[in-house]
Write a structure and sequence with these properties.
Elements lengths: L29 H13 L6 E4 L7 H15 L3 E5 L3 E6 L4
Antiparallel strand pairs: 1-3, 2-3
């Protein structure tokens, strides 16, 4: 019979300590979404943020989707609307 500790084949990939593995995801839209969420925290009731589409750097649909994921994850309710030039974002009250 063979030995209980045969010579193992070399690893295909490099290894690292699991504690050093990045746990967060910093997507393409993190900067804009973080900025919008901070502004929403300070937004007065009945007001909306007005984001110029030209300043988003991405398609409004992609930014809107990223914002939707972030607000749902945080348990926040926001609404959005848009026209040819701007994306509008506001807090939705629970009333």
């Amino acid at each position: 019979m063979g030995s209980t500790n045969p010579k193992a084949a070399p690893m295909t990939f490099k290894t690292m300590v699991q504690a050093d593995v990045p746990q967060g995801r910093n997507g393409k839209h993190k900067l804009i979404v973080t900025a919008v969420l901070k502004d929403l925290d300070r937004l007065k009731a009945g007001s909306a943020l007005k984001l110029p589409l030209a300043d988003l750097g991405q398609a409004k649909e992609k930014v809107r989707s990223a914002l939707n994921r972030a607000t749902r994850k945080a348990g926040r309710k926001v609404a959005t609307a848009s026209d040819a030039s701007f994306l509008y974002v506001w807090n939705v009250s629970d009333e």
